[in-house]
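Shipment paperwork, digital attachment
Item: protein structure file
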Amino acid sequence: MKNIKITILDMQPIEPPTGGGRLRLLGLYSGFKNDIEAIYVGSYDWRGPGYRNHKLSDCLTEIDVPLSEAHFKAHDALSVRLGKGCIDTAFSLQGHLSAKFIQQAKVEAQSAEIVIFSHQWLFPYVAQVLDEKKQLIVYDAHNCEGLLRVKLLDDGTKLANEVCRAAVKCEYELCHAADLIFACSQEDKNNFVKLYSVNPNKIIIVPNGVFTTRIMPCDDQRKRQQIKARLGITKPAVCFIGSGYYPNEEAGRLIIEVADMLPQYHFIIIGGVGNNLQDFDVHKHPNVIITGFVEEQEKLDYFAASDIALNPMLSGSGTNIKMFDFMAAGLPIITTDIGARGIANTSGKVYQLCDRNKQDLAQKICHLMEAPDHYAELKQYGRIEACEKYSWEQISYELGYKLVQKYRKKFSRTPFFSVIIPTYERHALLTKLLDNLRKQTYRDFEVIIVDQSEEKYSGLVRYQNMDITYFKTSIRGASKARNTGIRLAKGCVAAFIDDDCIPETTWLQNSERYLKKPNVVGVEGCIKADIYDNVNYRVVSNVNFEGIGFMTANLFVRMDVLNEIDGLDETFDNPHFREDTDLGWRVQERGDIPYGRDVVVLHPSHKRDSVRESIDERNKFFVHDPLLMKKHPKKFIDLFVAEGHYREKVYWKYFSEGIKRHGIPNEILKRILEDKRVDHSLIPKDILESILKDMQ
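Attachment content:
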């Protein structure tokens, strides 16, 4: 099969990958699989460097064409009048002066199947050679640039207004021309929908990330001490890193104020932001180290020498890549809400929030230095989160699949169903499931397999007549796997099923009838077991328990609804439980989910003699019940009563852990006491007293 060519266009270089923008470019596009040829066309926003054409990875080639001297002179004159540099923001007004750069971009774009605009700057010049009937057009939005540029540049003058309007117009036109938009965060996605009236279904969140195989914790204490000594760091140290971007300067100045309050610590400000802080007299701030620009190894050394990372951002847009650097390096993080934007604080263990003032930041630093358990949690879970959610290696690999799928979907038949199957170390059962899918009476479907097993599945050769996408990943978690399946799917409806289930031959055919009814957004299928009422088996069934629990062993959801609600909530992973119930309840807010008694799968009951299926192991899953209650208080109480798990003493052990893990306030828990259906005598005394105290 012919390689698919992807052309990525921007007006900066990738190499060296300094700053968030260049790191995102390298991270997103350097890890595609080998049937993709990616060409990046960029330039330099400073005078000096010449033309270059070089390989950055097996699949990514970088071509840089210098801007013309006429362009630089025009920008110099404009920036003097504006009072600020604006070579990127004003590119739609001045880019025609760099004819060679524009011509290279056009040539590479015209010959590609997929054209990605990383930032919107080149779109007005390249739009004329695009062919929407043959190409997939993508906007990789690093921020909601129109909004950001107005905040940074618009000072009320006519000139600033003209420059900002041009940037906004350019982004608006690209948003509406694009088949697909990458947003860094939910906030940016919402801004595109609100400001530009963009269809939310064509926006997917592609987070920023970090090369987790390059940035790793330094746990060798002897090595850390050697690095500290070499760098002249004699005290416990906190670090911050940033480019010369103004919001980083704001944060740097705040950190220096905090340093004056805490002379017992060293404060290290790394990167180009130091050039904006040259007015500070270093002799008056002996515990502050301002490095200026550093090479990658120097950065890693400063990380190794630091005890805490800070990200006290006061303004800005999008997610901060520095956060992922800190997480990958195993540095406990103290950040403002702005600095943490777009990054979930899973169980409150990924970072420590602080207010946007020096007093609270100083207090949080001292507290964290003196709290070894919390310190260890942040260090451990930040690294885990970086590897599982924000690893460039994984993000790029999956993105390549997604782009190819989107390209093929645009120019090929769209299946009605996408059968999504997460699998983990059960390849024999997966084969049995595929055999049964091959027998379906309804044929308009594709299959998405997300395999989290150690070894690759070898049985695909048997199913060459089926439309199957097989995605192998080392990242574990059922919610993560199903979300990956959603992102790779081409169909109109996601059909979720477990790898150990056996669907009846009419499974898909019968579900389609329900989905064609008005206001129906999904179908809850019937899950039958082969063995009931046997304590030696774990039974999975929703017979006579429909409309409340929901299970992804047999659940259909319209794809547009899944995109609106951003799929499954991955907070319910590790161990995965209640993510399907949460999904069903959120989908119900969009429409009806009828119960299909004739939409049947068999879920074989599993013997309890394996650790994976044992009662002790399954009881641990109730740690997520408090989170489900926090998100859906009313529905949860109905489920709580109907299931009756709370009647078992062991339930409360893990429920109590979940209260702490998910930070559940007593005002939510008191609903348990207010419901007359609940036998309150079964609630442990400590939980009962805590809730009652709060209610007084």
